[in-house]
Write a structure and sequence with these properties.
The protein is an alpha/beta fold. It contains two helices and eight strands. Strands 1-4-3-2 form a four-stranded mixed sheet, covered by helices on one side. Strands 5-8-7-6 form a four-stranded mixed sheet, covered by helices on one side.
């Protein structure tokens, strides 16, 4: 396997609300499906081999500002994604920050109470 990371899950309270939030901020479509009796919304892959994950509503997980942080690919429009955060009901916790040759990132709080980062590679 080419990646050490295989899958990620972002816990949510309201799957429909969270799906709308991430679709709006990232200008993408998530695939809502049933996975072994649990409703999830899967982040679609840009190309074969991409690592992906899902929003998940589960009694065993709860949203948090603490703990592990997922960095989502904002593509070539990090500034636009950051602008859409508040419009979609979230909050920017850390404004766009350069990390030199590695690009830039920002940290947001989603509608569910999770701290999630958006990242764009240098030159985007």
């Amino acid at each position: 396997m080419a990646h050490r990371l295989n899958w990620f899950e972002i816990p949510v309270v309201d799957l429909a609300r969270a799906t709308r939030f991430y679709e709006s901020v990232l200008s993408t479509t998530l695939k809502v499906e049933d996975f072994h009796g649990t409703r999830i919304a899967v982040f679609t892959r840009k190309q074969e081999g991409d690592v992906t994950g899902a929003l998940i509503h589960s009694p065993h997980m709860r949203p948090s500002l603490e703990g592990s942080r997922v960095f989502l690919d904002a593509g070539s429009d990090l500034d636009g994604a950051i602008r859409r955060v508040a419009q979609a009901g979230g909050k920017v916790l850390v404004e766009k920050t350069s990390i030199g040759a590695l690009g830039s990132f920002a940290v947001l709080q989603d509608t569910e109470g999770n701290a999630v980062a958006l990242h764009a590679h240098a030159g985007h």
